[in-house]
Amino acid sequence: MTDLVLPSETNPLNNLFGGELLARMDRAASIAARRHSRRIVVTASVNHVAFNRAVPLGSVVTVEAAVSRAFSTSMEVFIDVWMEDRFSGERTKANEAIYTFVAVDDTGIPTAVPKIEAETELEKQRFAAALRRKQLSLVLAGKMKPKEATELRALFMEE
Ligand SMILES: CC(C)(COP(=O)(O)OP(=O)(O)OC[C@H]1O[C@@H](n2cnc3c(N)ncnc32)[C@H](O)[C@@H]1OP(=O)(O)O)[C@@H](O)C(=O)NCCC(=O)NCCS
């Protein structure tokens, strides 16, 4: 999803307002989750957001979203945000985020989603770490007991 940064979308430093970027990321991620599941999808959680670089007024911003892992009814979506240099056209990574979406039926009940096959090295890394991020998100939301988060606990037990 590529779009410009307009004056109404900036903060007093003339950089892209964080909430505007969150909304753009949510839109792009929901399209990725919907294309994967072919279902209505809702944002269940925002697991990680890093605003590493300010995005100045007038920038051309590209938000790329891809499902990194599908569980039973939920999908983890990775979002990479790029900005384009006005003169050279070179793309620089500005931000990244990880969202969780849940596929639901017409009444809002979670419904099954197809599995995903990781192909590239990056996809495989993101796929492998997705389960512990899901467990962390559920623990923080009070939906899972820390002792049940086996994959997450294993991370801290490594030598
Ligand atoms: C997201 C929602 C559908 C989950 O409903 P629920 O009753 O908690 O359903 P479940 O407990 O069966 O969870 C469904 C899936 O979501 C996952 N999930 C729920 N909360 C989560 C969280 N905080 N982090 C990560 N995953 C979460 C569960 O692990 C489960 O995944 P799985 O089936 O792949 O294993 C429900 O909470 C909802 O509709 N929320 C509002 C969504 C919304 O309006 N979003 C826009 C915000 S403005």
Protein model, in words:
- The mean pLDDT is 94.
- Strands 1-3-4-5-2 form a five-stranded antiparallel sheet.
- Helix 2 (121-140) packs across helix 3.
- The protein is globular.
- Strand 4 (74-84) and strand 5 form a beta hairpin.
- It has helices at 18-37, 121-140, 150-157; strands spanning 2-4, 40-51, 60-70, 74-84, 91-104.
- The chain folds into two domains: 2-116, Thiol Ester Dehydrase, Chain A, CATH 3.10.129; 117-159, no CATH class.
- The protein is built from three helices and five strands.
- It has 159 residues and is of the alpha+beta class.
- Residues 42-45, 71-74, 100, 102, 104, 108, 110, 134, 137-138, 141, 143 line the site of coenzyme A.
- Coenzyme A binds next to strand 2, strand 5 and helix 2.
Q: Count helical runs.
A: 3
CATH topology of the largest domain: Thiol Ester Dehydrase, Chain A
CATH top-level class of the largest domain:
Alpha Beta
Bound molecules: coenzyme A
Distance between the termini: 42 Å
Overall structural domain count: 2
The CATH superfamily of the largest domain bears the name: Hotdog Thioesterase
Strand order in the largest sheet: 1-3-4-5-2
Q: What letter string, H or E per element, gives the SSE order?
A: EHEEEEHH
Instruction: Please identify, by name, the CATH architecture of the largest domain.
Output: Roll
Cα gyration radius (Å): 17 Å
Provide the helix percentage. 25-40%
Residue stretches low in confidence (pLDDT < 50, at least 5 long) are none
Q: What's the mean pLDDT score?
A: 94
